[in-house]
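User: Can you help me understand a structure? I only have the sequence.
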Amino acid sequence: MTNTVHSNGHIAIQANNMHVYYGNFRAVKDITLQFPSHQISALIGPSGCGKSTVLRSFNRMNDLVATARVEGEVLYHNHNIYDASVDPVEVRRHIGMVFQKPNPFPKSIYENVAWGARVNGFKGNMDDLVESALRQAALWDEVKDKLDQSGYSLSGGQQQRLCIARTIAVKPEIILMDEPTSALDPVATLKIEELIQELKKSYTIIIVTHNMQQAARASDYTAFFNMDEDRAGYLEEYNETNELFTNPKNELTEQYITGRFG
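Assistant: Let's start by predicting it. Here is the structure, written out as tokens:
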């Protein structure tokens, strides 16, 4: 594994010697990885190499799988989020997640954004919060006159931006995105990519993508994962995106990004 990232800035989150198991099956092994703050980091690699498993480990979403367990540590503000004293719900408030398929709640556009903040005990002006989140998600101008309509009334790309607004509304520090554009058309995909560039001013973003062109276009850093003979995913190489795509250090990385396997 090659890891030559040198960031002078703050590290938002890092994994140290992390292994993830589902029952007796080790899905990923020995992941050590640091993500710089206010940067976009992409996770790429062939299907089944554990990209989404790694991503879900960063806000304890794997806890929702009965057979899952994590060894090693994930440090956020120098605290291991897997420590027994840590509340996973609190972790998810600081480290939000946007999923592969848009999943708006069966509620109005307004309530989709307000719901998480309300559950978390937000006491401020909800109208202002909803507008601010929708503006950050580049959706306000398209929905400001129909906030009482169902979130389902929006197009796929708008629904995904609504889900991003919903995540933003609880004021996380990190946003995890699991193939957020794979269900969208090229125009909607481009809007999401432009939005992600804008969001990194305020958030650290980690994105799983099966689209190498998207990783090259939209990310500052890229982690390439591969799969061993025991089917466990591992980190092959991690570097600044431009460096990884133009001058990969590992032969397997070069083979993958040039389409010779995967």
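Now, to help you interpret it: The chain is about 35% helix and 25% strand. Residues 30 and 247 are 24 Å apart (CA to CA). Let me know which part you'd like to focus on.
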